[in-house]
Amino acid sequence: MTQGRRERADAARNRRAILLATEDLLTRHRPEEISMERVAAAAGVGKGTLFHRFGSRMGLMRALMEERAVALHTSVESGPPPLGPGAPPRERLYAFLDGIVDVVSRNKGLVAALGHAASTAHRPPARKTGRQDRTGTAAEEADQGQEPEQVCAVPRGRAAQEPDDTSDAPDRHGHPHDHPVYDFWHAHISALITAERPDADAELLAHLLLSPLYSTHIHAALERGEGARVARALRTTAGAMLDAPETPEETPPSG
Q1: How many CB atoms are closer than 10 A to CB 221?
Q2: In the predicted model, what is the mean pLDDT of residues 131-152?
Q3: What is the pLDDT of residue 116?
């Protein structure tokens, strides 16, 4: 029993060291410069440990983003209104959009890294095209011969639904940034829109509200410290969506 407890403590310590090392590297390097080998060296662990813990580079970035977003998640579930339960849907939506902008503005490098990890999903494996630079993300991930255990944390209720992500592939919707954090943000926004406007296409509107946060232009604004401006614009957009008159669905032309 003592050995088991020690092993769990060591695993937790390694996980924390890996996430801290990744976070530090993202403050000093572009996402494409951060390989799994580089993270392992910075964290003082073996590269095999890194793959075993997180499955892939995308899995690592997801885990870090989930940890950064957990405070917002907790506030939504059990915090005071308007972010938490008890406020009207519109007020909760505005407060939630403010919270998302705050998370993204403090984690621009991480959001970019998630996008870069997904964009490298289908690079040709090294064993098919000759040896690539061993510090490259595609080569080192392609050389892992088996599917490692996926143990990175996900928001409650999501674990059983998450697909294996060792390939860094986009999900079935084709959105390169989809991950448990995005899924939760999208689901919560959709629910609030539906509560305020049951006739609205809440699923699509939620994607439209979130998509600007992955724009290079919005990231540039956040880099300039214009988070409040971005949040106001999102509130304006959301308000316009909620106040728009109901329009009938278009019917496809016949014949």
Answers
A1: 17
A2: 37
A3: 60
- State the DSSP code for 244: S
0.70 exceeded by pTM: no
Is there a domain that residue 249 lies in? no
Give the percent of the chain with pLDDT over 90.
Answer: 37
Report yes or no on 170 lying in a domain: yes
The count of structural domains within the chain is 1
What is the spatial distance between Cα 81 and Cα 76, in angstroms, rounded to a whole number? 9
Predicted confidence at residue 213, as pLDDT, reads 85
C-alpha to C-alpha distance for 109 and 27, rounded to whole angstroms = 7
pLDDT of residue 166: 36
Residue 254: inside a domain, yes or no?
no
CA 28 to chain centre: 20
How many angstroms separate the CA atoms of 188 and 167, rounded? 27
Helix pair angle (89-106, 57-78), 10° resolution: 140
CA angle, 44 then 47 then 109, to 5°: 75
Using a 10 angstrom Cβ sphere, with 0-12 exposed, 13-18 middle and 19 or more buried, the burial of residue 247 is exposed
With vertex at residue 64, the alpha carbon angle to CA 30 and CA 24, rounded to the nearest 5 degrees, is: 45
What domain range is 34 assigned to? 2-124+136-243
